[in-house]
């Protein structure tokens, strides 16, 4: 795989390959894989149809095998084609504003601000910390940072509870062309701001935002955080790269992203949504703007250390996706790639529900020798998953971690658990989020 990647990179340097060509070739190969899967699965369909009828059997197998296999194949080919363009200027000096919405962040906000001080960026950085009605010592910690860190920090107050209120209030005070959003529990690699600004300045004017790369800081805390480290390092990063290649990263996440202020103001800032960063990104895409991803702009965040916290976070993400689909329909997106990328999200509830209701029970049945749902055919998805993770692992190691002088932690147990068990937990959690949104249950920031 290593030699194949080098060969592909050399070919791409000699021959310009358009995004459209990459898009359709990746589709063609992915559809061939799915057709192959369908043909060899006829006996599986026939056996399952004896129990649940042919239409239901096809629907179940589509949800747990055909569609996931197609999506994985499309991802792999696209990642092999991906080649991040070089910065036009590696050391920009454009003034920038960083917005940090903070609610009860007394334990983390000072450290977050300290890492901003350590940035190798030579342009002026203005930091706006918006206290969102905290009832702990968040304000005191920000004032301590103002006194000790010698940063250009302004403390603002937004009493209306809600992250979108805080961000929009901060946006009113921003006087620069670009604004970076940063979560109060997220710390930055020393070159994160520089690389993020270098990417958006190197991009066409219709690029409204660039999402940074989020990695896990507290992976050594317990097994659960070790598992999530691989999700961020491989799963989330691979999806971001895929979407960035097709100029439509679907979430310029609030944890660490940069936006052109004029584009944000044109759409009215952040919306009243539990997934405000998802909806604001899709509204920018709807305005024919493009959203990129910069893997070298790295930030580190603390992931949920308990299953309960994880369920709250990921069900909130699932709700945010549904809010985005409700606000901007995929077919209303003006660009082909964005129609496709947001359209994929339309089938995600089907995949998660199918996995929850059929794969997990089918796995239990298979343990007792009943291979009606889960059997040898379902293993066809596994090699594609491992290949895609292998491709991304090599990319992250060579083109991200090595230039940033970072080392990949030894986390074998976490990787094994991630491969074997992560989706078994993720799909039911996402399904729970869909149910919450359907029932319009109370929204919570945290």
UniProtKB/TrEMBL annotation:
Pfam families: Glycos_transf_2
Domain (Glycosyltransferase 2-like) ranges: 97-267
Example GO molecular function: glycosyltransferase activity
TM annotation in the entry: 21-45, 51-81, 346-368, 374-395, 415-435
InterPro entries: Glyco_trans_2-like (IPR001173), Nucleotide-diphossugar_trans (IPR029044)
The entry's keywords: Glycosyltransferase, Membrane, Transferase, Transmembrane, Transmembrane helix
CDD domains: CESA_like
Family (UniProt): Belongs to the glycosyltransferase 2 family.
Name this protein carries in UniProt: Glycosyltransferase 2-like domain-containing protein
Organism whose genome encodes this protein: Heyndrickxia sporothermodurans
């Amino acid at each position: 795989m290593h030699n194949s990647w080098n060969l592909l990179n050399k070919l791409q340097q000699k021959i310009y390959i358009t995004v459209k060509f990459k898009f359709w070739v990746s589709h063609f190969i992915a559809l061939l894989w799915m057709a192959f899967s369908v043909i060899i699965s006829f006996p599986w369909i026939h056996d399952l149809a004896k129990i649940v009828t042919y239409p239901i059997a096809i629907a179940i197998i589509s949800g747990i095998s055909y569609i996931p296999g197609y999506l994985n194949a499309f991802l792999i080919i696209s990642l092999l084609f991906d080649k991040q363009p070089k910065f036009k200027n590696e050391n920009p000096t454009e003034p920038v504003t960083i917005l940090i919405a903070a609610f009860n962040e007394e334990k983390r906000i000072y450290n977050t601000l300290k890492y901003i001080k350590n940035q190798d960026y030579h342009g002026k950085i203005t930091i706006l910390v918006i206290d969102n009605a905290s009832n702990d010592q968040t304000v005191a910690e920000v004032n301590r940072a103002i006194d000790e860190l010698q940063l250009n920090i302004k403390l603002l107050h937004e009493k209306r509870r809600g992250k979108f209120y805080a961000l929009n209030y901060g946006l009113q005070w921003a006087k620069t062309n670009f604004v970076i959003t940063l979560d109060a529990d997220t710390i930055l690699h020393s070159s994160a701001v520089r690389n993020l600004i270098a990417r958006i300045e190197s991009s066409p004017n219709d690029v409204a935002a660039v999402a940074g790369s989020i990695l896990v800081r507290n992976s050594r805390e317990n097994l659960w955080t070790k598992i999530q480290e691989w999700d961020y390092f491989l799963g989330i990063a691979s999806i971001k790269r895929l979407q960035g290649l097709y100029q439509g990263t679907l979430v310029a996440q609030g944890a660490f992203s940069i936006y052109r202020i004029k584009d944000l103001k044109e759409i009215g800032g952040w919306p009243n949504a539990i997934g405000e960063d998802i909806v604001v990104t899709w509204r920018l895409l709807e305005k024919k703007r493009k959203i990129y991803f910069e893997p070298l702009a790295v930030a580190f965040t603390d992931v949920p250390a308990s299953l309960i916290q994880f369920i709250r976070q990921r069900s909130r993400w699932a709700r945010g996706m549904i809010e985005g689909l409700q606000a901007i329909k995929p077919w209303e997106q003006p660009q082909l790639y964005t129609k496709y990328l947001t359209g994929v999200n339309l089938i995600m509830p089907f995949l998660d529900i199918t996995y929850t209701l059929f794969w997990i029970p089918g796995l239990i049945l298979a343990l007792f020798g009943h291979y009606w749902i889960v059997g040898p055919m379902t293993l066809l998805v596994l090699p594609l998953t491992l290949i895609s993770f292998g491709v991304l692992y090599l990319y992250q190691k060579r083109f991200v971690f090595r230039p940033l002088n970072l080392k990949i932690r030894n986390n074998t147990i976490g990787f094994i658990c991630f491969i074997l068990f992560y989706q078994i937990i993720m799909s039911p959690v996402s399904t729970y989020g869909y149910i919450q949104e359907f029932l319009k249950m109370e929204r919570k920031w945290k």
